[in-house]
Amino acid sequence: MAPPTYMGLSGKSLSTALSAICTTGFLLFGYDQGVMSGILTAPAFADVFEETRNNSTIQGVVTSIYDLGCLFGAIFVLTVGDQLGRRRAMIIGGIVMIIGTLIQITSYPGHSPLAQFIIGRIVTGIGNGMNTSTIPTYQAECSKTSNRGLLICIQGGTIAFGTLIAYWLEYGASYGPPDVVWRFPIAFQILFGVILSSAMYWLPESPRWLLTHDRLEEATKVIAAIRGYDEDSEETVTERAIILDSINASGVSGGKSTPYKALFTNGKTQHFRRMLLGASSQFMQQVGGCNAVIYFFPILCETFITPGDHNMALLLGGVNAIVYAIFATVSWFLIERVGRRKLFLWGTVGQFLSMVLAFASLIPGTRSAAIGTCVALFTYIASFGATWLPLPWLYPAEINPIMTRAKANAVSTCTNWLFNFFIVLITPVLVTKIGWGTFLFFAVLNATFIPVIYFFYPETARRSLEEIDIIFAKGNVEKISYVKAAKELPLLTDEEVEQEALRLGLIDTAARGAMKVAAQHREKDGVPVHETVERV
Fold first, then answer.
1. Residue 205 has what pLDDT?
2. Contact in structure between 153 and 22 (CB atoms under 8 Å)
3. pLDDT(522) > 50
4. In degrees, to the nearest 5, what angle opens at C-alpha 486 toward C-alphas 485 and 489?
5. In this predicted model, what pLDDT tens digit does every residue of 114-168 receive, in sequence order?
6. Percent of the chain that is helix, strand, coil (3-state, to 5)
7. How far apart are CA 510 and CA 501, in angstroms?
8. Band of pLDDT at residue 528, cut at 50, 70 and 90
9. Which of 284, 316, 311, 322 is nearest to 297 (CA)?
10. 362 with 436: CB under 8 angstroms?
11. Would you tell me the crossing angle of helices 234-250 and 494-503 to the nearest 10 degrees?
């Protein structure tokens, strides 16, 4: 019997298609993140939106209001994401982004263009907030343990490629007619939104979400299709049973929405700690200065390095985007070999040293010394792209348990967009008011991240999502740090996860689903049940 199919695909080909569409969602995210950087100071843009001309405060508002929309989108998923499902949330998110883009590009003088543009930015942000809250969870719940980190890092890394496309597209558009200068780069993102929403219509829902809503047959079909198994194979039944054990232990079965109070519980599941770990990674990503560089690189160059030369500032921004994209691929090769903790630490040190060089080069106040700031911005974006760009999208999606994963991941995304909004809003003002002190500010913040990561972030590389539950139960039961628990716990097989869950009290003997089902399956093949259990 052949595996079930979606879009005529199954197994590796279906997993590849699923990952490609998730990646498109983050390509759209990166494109929208970078598209305003060169447009904002373009004369053609200021001719339509006069309020933005030479006004750093209004420029900050126009740029950051998008992040406020993203926050609203993340809050929407936090509120109804469990009922809506991963697939439908992504479809709606893509459609909302298309609508927001259309609102932006139809702004014309004489019809309150700035107000309309801001509304469009907010609407586009809502769609992106929905996508960024949902896509990492969907990818994590559909991936194998062996490649989960790689796949989410790839989709996180494509943010940089989206930014690269935006930078160079708007650089080319800057030579066109006034309307093309800003309307075409903004309109181009509709292509990504159409691909995301239309493809997700044909792709499957997350099997873990289906099982939490007691849709057993659909979940079995999805597991078999994604893995390339027959629906009644031992592998399909065992994987489904292990997920069911995790759901039963969490108490989230029956299609019930996870109550908000569950986010603030600890005990063996450590929901609150795990939510804080995921949210703190997004907080540190934002206040470390990444979007001060990504959104405002041309403005920073024009202010400190190439005064009055807008074209050169745009060109340097394009080169910076190339560096960003190249180094964004580094994590793809290191994420499972090196692990999450070391990449977090290495990236933080690189960002800290870059910000120190940036502010130190500006203190003399000479044009030649300011070149050091340009170098520092390149080394910063290289360090960020290789580490902090993808990791905060991966870590919350895998560190949180199935009961709170959707809501906790949405909290992490809300944290991202809240502080993204704050940093993007204040950066133009900081540059105007305190100059090189802006980079000193970000250097100090990066220095404070190192002890937090070292003492509180457990390693999750090469662990199944259910295995990560064991790490926190072990730390709680044995009264040791969770970093130490992760170091001491060997990599476990599916059966060993069941045994550890029983030993640590995560599930009782009645919930030994995977072992029982596997044993029953083997008995059909003529192997007695007691022999199967002994082998386990």
1. 95
2. no
3. no
4. 80
5. 999 999 999 999 999 999 989 988 998 888 877 788 888 888 889 889 988 998 8
6. 80, 0, 20
7. 12
8. very low
9. 316
10. yes
11. 20
Amino acid at 294: I
d(CA 459, CA 482): 9
Backbone angles phi, psi at 354, to 5 degrees: -65, -45
DSSP class of residue 229?
A: -
Per-residue pLDDT tens over the stretch 444-475: 999 999 999 999 999 999 898 889 999 999 99
d(CA 212, CA 200): 20
Closest CA to 232 of 512, 15, 519, 1: 1
pLDDT in tens, 330-382: 888 888 889 999 999 999 999 999 999 988 988 877 777 778 888 888 899 99
Q: Where are the alpha helices (DSSP H) in 435-481?
A: 437-456, 465-478
Here the tokens at position 12 are 């590796």
DSSP code of 253?
-
Burial 269-303 (b: 16+ CB within 10 A, else e): bbbbbbbbbbbbbbbbbbbbbbbbbbbbbbbbbbb
Numbers of helices and strands, H then E, in the chain: 26, 0
Nearest to 404 by CA among 236, 217, 249: 249
CA–CA separation, 381 and 325 (whole Å): 9
251 φ/ψ angles, rounded to the nearest 5 degrees: 75, 25
Phi-psi region of 228 (alpha: psi -120 to 50; beta: other; left: phi over 0): left
- In three-state secondary structure terms, 9 is strand
Question: How is 497-526 classified by DSSP, letter by letter?
Answer: HHHHHHHTTSS-GGG-HHHHHHHHHHHHTT
Rounded distance between C-alpha atoms, residue 536 and residue 515, angstroms: 8
According to the model, what pLDDT value does residue 530 have? 36
Averaged pLDDT, 17-30: 92
Gap between the Cα atoms of 460 and 395, Å rounded = 8
Rounded Cα gap, residues 229 and 234, in angstroms = 9
Model confidence at 276, pLDDT cuts 50, 70, 90, reads very high
> 6: helix, coil or strand?
strand
Instruction: Return the SS3 of 106.
Output: coil
Polymer length of the chain: 536
Q: Is the pTM of this model over 0.90?
A: no
> Tell me, what amino acid is at 460?
T
Q: Residue 535: CB partners within 8 Å, gap ≥ 6?
A: none
Name 9's bridge partners: 6
Tens of pLDDT, residue by residue over 43-75, are: 899 999 998 887 878 887 888 889 899 999 999
Q: How far apart are CA 262 and CA 385, in angstroms?
A: 34
Taking the CA atoms of residue 361, residue 365, residue 368 and residue 372 in that order, the dihedral angle to the nearest 10 degrees is 10
6, β-bridge pairs: 9
The residue type found at 167 is Y
Per the structure block, which two tokens stand in for 455?
């003492």
Q: 330 is written with which tokens? A: 């580094």
